[in-house]
Amino acid sequence: MDIDIRESEPDTDNEPPAKRCRLIMDAVEVPSIASVRIRAEVERQEIHRKLELLRNPIVKKPKDTPTLSLDSVRERLRSIGYEVYPIDLENTILDVTVRRDFMSKEYGGNPQDTYPKIGSAFVARTGKSRFSYLNLLYNPHCPEIPGAPGLLFDVKCSGEPNDSGGDQVKEEEGKPHGAGGNEDEPRGPAPPLTLDEWKQQSSAVRKNWAKQIAKKRWGLSIRADITLRRQLGRKPTDAEKKAALKSKNAFKTVTPEEISSALDRREVIVVVSTLKCVGYKADFQRDLAAKIPFFVPPPRKAAGKGKKGKNTNHRKAAPVVKGQKRKRMEPESDSDDEDSDSTSEEEEEIVYRPRGTRSRPIVNTPVASTVRTTGVKFSPHHFPAATASTFDSILSSRYTSIPCCAARAKSVAWKGI
């Protein structure tokens, strides 16, 4: 049998196509400068939007307070984040604010100290021993709403360690702006104010800080350091400064000008710490909301014996008008006697001679030269063509139709021109 060899050979023309190879390129995309700037600006605007949400529109900040730009605040808060701690509490209770005198009465402590010392009796009764009341005059970037992060300002001598370490915790209980239940807010170190940031503050802010450091108790360490530098001619050692602080000297001889110079030379710096909320005592805030409506503020203390009260019956001296004679002042009466037309014999009549204008020329007719009223003086230029009879009819109407005149005329002087 004849066999065709060509039919037994495999057909190579119908082979399946070869599979495509997947190529993987290992490379790094180098972004352009324009794309980097656009991405940074978008991120910056998003963070600024978050920072705006941390502000409380009800809180009114003083004018003479140090402020930082949003970029400076953003960089210092970056390490702890910009998110608000979630609090499961109704707004009617969460937004309740309290007073310092209320907190002092219920939980103890000096109503004016930032970190008041609580008496043992209050601690035994309430179980709370640490409170802080941050003043917006010195801490304008502190938390304004419950659970929000913030910044804490303080002053220290250069070279001293920052006391606000990350391992320390403080209770933000009973804040005057309503964040009374913030349980724990760990403090973290942040870059201090640079020399440029300090000099960018207004002169009123810098003077106020120097003035407060010179007289407040929390400025004792600064005043001691400046005094020792002045006496020793060098920076004091730690042992020398500790010995000075143990003495009873308050170092009140340090002037605000010396403190301002120390701040400008960076011998004294404004340190910054971050505050992050990690818990919230809802029960404590509920107690505050339940007690504050029944609080009756104590009456204000009366003025001391050495202080004289303001004399409400004291009359100010009448201003002396140049070119006029001084008139004798008449004592004011408690009752208004509008029906009396009698004039004092000692009262002098002032004669006014108008020069006239183009729109109001002088008319040679008898006119009232001056109508003297209680607090108002009428001159002839108001009525250039008025005669004596015309003024008699006007005076009888009790000035109901005369502008700027509120009382009956005391006297009328007639004089022809």
TrEMBL record:
Residues 302-328 have a biased composition (Basic residues). Residues 156-193, 296-366 are annotated as: Disordered. It comes from Mycena belliarum. It holds the Pfam family DUF6697. Residues 97-291 form the DUF6697 domain. Residues 332-349 have a biased composition (Acidic residues). InterPro entries: DUF6697. This is DUF6697 domain-containing protein. It comes from the Eukaryota.
